[in-house]
Design brief:
47% strand; 419 residues; 2% helix; ten-stranded mixed β-sheet; mainly beta; 1 helix; 19-stranded parallel β-sheet
Length: 419
């Protein structure tokens, strides 16, 4: 539908990095104004290849919903806020809830060392794909690449972030969540620090009610403080790569009386920070399983191998130096076994469970096990593996999606960990 596509150059933007494009870009955004929550197509503000200088924050008009800013590529279409601009793109407002925002194939390069490239307040469903954010990287930088906020005056919570294939570098904080921010998915991104920026973090989850987060398969490197800092998060931090972070890779600052329920598993640590890889109130580099903070750590420590596999399927590339747990409490893994089978699950009603078995030679009752099905691409099914007999792993598919799910036929992979 052509009227839903707003090309900023049609509104007068030049994109040469010299002309002030603030007014024409804002005019294109304003042309999407109105409460369009029922419009499933949404509006797209399009940035052809170029560098777009701005001298004021770009803001969403009122309570406009379903707004997407899209470029030709994260290094091809670049927003460059001037040195006096505190926020590059400001989505949402403290007095209302904004639904369905997105940035795709777009770069943002703030000129101020104290600036935020992107701020989203009281949002529901924010989709960030192939976004490149580059801060100044200068000493004294206090900027944030992305800030997510929740304001009680406008909404009891914000949530439903999907951030994938993005890169954030040169800011004191790459991604910050401040407030009640729920059900967010951060997958396959790169957060890079700068040696000139003091106290830098890749991801910073500040509130004790940051719930339902999944931080998976990201890279965190070069931060002068640490990779991930969290206070009371409920969720999973898994299969990320951490290297050359100065003080810690993951730090949990416990909130008294709050059940964090954090699962930390399968991350790769290629360096040993000053305070330890994982820092908790119970101690540095502690296994912390079942402790008062509600943290469970199952680490398949690939750090000594010096690399990390980022393929869609989780694969153990070698068993040498792998351990369950961390630090002195870790138990070496003697062997990792695997097995596969082609399996076509039946249709499963909500709250329903079906099981099947996979043969894994050498598996014994008491061994730990994991499983994945290639058809479970949206994570609609909880897949649980248990060694139930000699050479036999039972895999249960538990439907918690809220509706009936019929996964396609696919490959069922099983891993058995022998300590």
């Amino acid at each position: 539908m052509p009227h839903l596509w707003k090309d900023v150059t049609v509104f007068g933007a030049v994109g040469d990095g010299v002309a002030d494009d603030t007014a024409p870009i804002q005019a294109a955004i304003n042309a999407t104004s109105g409460d369009e929550i029922g419009n499933k197509a949404g509006y797209v503000v399009y940035f052809p290849s170029g560098i777009y200088k701005t001298t004021a924050p770009l803001t969403r008009p009122g309570a406009a919903h379903n707004l997407v800013l899209r470029g030709d590529g994260k290094n091809a279409s670049v927003l460059r806020p001037d040195a006096g601009v505190g926020i590059g793109v400001d989505l949402g407002a403290p007095t209302n809830v904004v639904f369905n925002s997105g940035l795709y194939d777009l770069g943002i390069e703030p000129g101020s060392p104290a600036a935020m490239a992107l701020r989203a307040t009281n949002f529901r469903y924010l989709d960030l794909k192939k976004v490149y954010i580059k801060g100044t990287g200068a000493a004294g930088n206090t900027g944030k690449g992305i800030q997510l906020r929740q304001d009680n005056a406008g909404s009891p919570f914000s949530g439903y972030l999907e951030m994938q294939d993005c890169e954030v570098l040169g800011s004191q904080t790459g991604l910050e969540a401040d407030g009640v921010i729920t059900a967010s998915y951060v997958f396959g991104n790169k957060f890079t620090g700068d040696p000139d920026i003091a106290g830098s973090r890749g991801v910073s989850l500040l509130n004790s009610n940051v719930a339902g987060w999944a931080i998976l398969k990201n890279e965190f490197e070069g931060h002068t403080e640490g990779g991930i800092y969290t206070r009371g998060t409920q969720g999973v931090i898994g299969f990320n790569r951490f290297e050359t972070n100065a003080l810690y890779h993951i730090k949990y600052d416990g909130v008294p009386g709050f059940n964090a329920r954090v699962l930390i598993l399968g991350n790769a640590y290629t360096t040993a920070p000053a305070l330890g890889r994982i820092v908790t109130p119970s101690g540095n580099d502690s296994a912390a399983a079942g402790n008062a903070e509600g943290i469970t750590i199952l680490e398949l420590d690939l750090g000594l191998l010096g690399f990390r596999d980022f393929d869609a399927d989780f694969r153990i590339l070698a068993a040498d130096s792998l351990k369950v747990g961390t630090g002195a409490a870790a138990t070496p893994i003697s062997q990792i076994l695997s097995g596969t089978a082609v399996y076509n699950p039946p249709s499963i009603a909500n709250e329903g469970i079906v099981t099947t078995t996979v043969s894994v030679s050498g598996a014994s009752v008491g061994d730990a096990a994991m499983a994945a099905h290639s058809g479970n691409t949206n994570g609609r099914m909880l897949v649980i593996a248990t060694v139930t007999g000699a050479n036999t792993v039972t895999v249960a598919f538990f439907n918690k999606s809220g509706g009936t799910v019929n996964l396609p036929s696919g490959t069922l992979r099983v891993w058995v960990i022998k300590a």
